[in-house]
Amino acid sequence: MLVRGIWGIERLSCQRLQFLRRFKLITNRVERREVLDIAITGGIGSGKSTVAEMLAAKGAVHLNADAIVHDLQQPGGAVFEAMVEHFGNHIVSEDGTLNRQAVADIVFNDTEQLEALNKIVHPGVRQEMQRRRDELRQQRTDVPLVVISEIPLLVEGRLKEAPPTTHQPQFDGIVVVVAYLEVVLARLAERGVSEADARARIAKQASNEERLAVADFVIDNSGPRSSLAGEVDRCWSWIMGLAV
């Protein structure tokens, strides 16, 4: 059975979706060693990082793709050296670290340069996230270990690799965080981002419809923090249900 949610696209019913996810989990249980791999994604200003942190407070392990990118872009690393080789020394600050604003200025309105940057950075990020997940799998406990992988560009990566390839990690569930456009614009304005800049950034990302097409669980973060707490509680109960 298909149901239509508040975001205007058809989705599998919760019962059908839960069955499919449980079946997948059972078939992978020996290999996964009772580790639940959950991806979380969402657009800029949706609050995905806040949701990931709230899930971590409930006992999950939070892996942040953006933080890993920063680690890999430290001076002397392979990613840093490859970026300097491609873009030139002007992306290096006086203190020898990466000038992220200089990189952003290059790639924001240049699709080819953005693609080149992604080809340099994304493989290393995927490898490092997988390494950390594999490491966590060795730390088996009496209860299922929940690993939350926060991946802002999860959907964008999948859209570029259709049909999916073996380079894409497989997850037991994908959580998508969404918020209405006016809410996102207000949040970004609080960060000092102009409406024009915010709309330009949003336009370069996947749409909510594209994200919802791969979602197993959707969190609506259009309301206040108190409402979000209830959404996260509901999400955590769903995650725990996957282990039954």
In short:
The protein is of the alpha/beta class and 244 residues long.
Summarize the structure in words.
This protein has 244 residues and is an alpha/beta fold. It has one domain: 3-Layer(aba) Sandwich (Rossmann fold), CATH 3.40.50. It is built from eleven helices and seven strands. It has helices spanning 14-32, 48-57, 65-72, 78-87, 100-107, 111-137, 154-160, 181-190, 195-203, 208-212, 225-242; strands at 2-4, 10-12, 35-42, 61-64, 145-150, 173-178, 217-220. The strands form two sheets. A five-stranded parallel β-sheet has the order 4-5-3-6-7, sandwiched between helices. A hairpin with a 5-residue loop joins strand 1 (2-4) and strand 2 (10-12). Helix 3 packs across helix 6 (111-137) and helix 4 runs antiparallel to helix 6 (111-137). It is globular, with a radius of gyration of 19 Å. The protein starts with a strand and ends with a helix.
Low-confidence residue ranges:
1-16, 22-33, 162-167
Biggest sheet overview: 5 strands, parallel
Beta-strand content bin: 5-15%
**What Rg do the Cα atoms give?**
19 Å
CATH architecture: 3-Layer(aba) Sandwich
What is the C-level CATH assignment? Alpha Beta
CATH topology: Rossmann fold
Helix-strand pattern: EEHEHEHHHHEHEHHHEH
- Quaternary structure state of the chains depicted: single chain
Structural class: alpha/beta
As laid out across the biggest beta sheet, the strand order is 4-5-3-6-7
CATH homology group: P-loop containing nucleotide triphosphate hydrolases
Estimate percent helicity.
40-55%
Distance between the termini: 23 Å
How many separate domains make up the residues?
A: 1
Number of strands: 7
Mean residue pLDDT: 82
Write down the overall geometry: globular
Q: Please tally the helical runs, counting DSSP H or I stretches of 4 or more residues.
A: 11
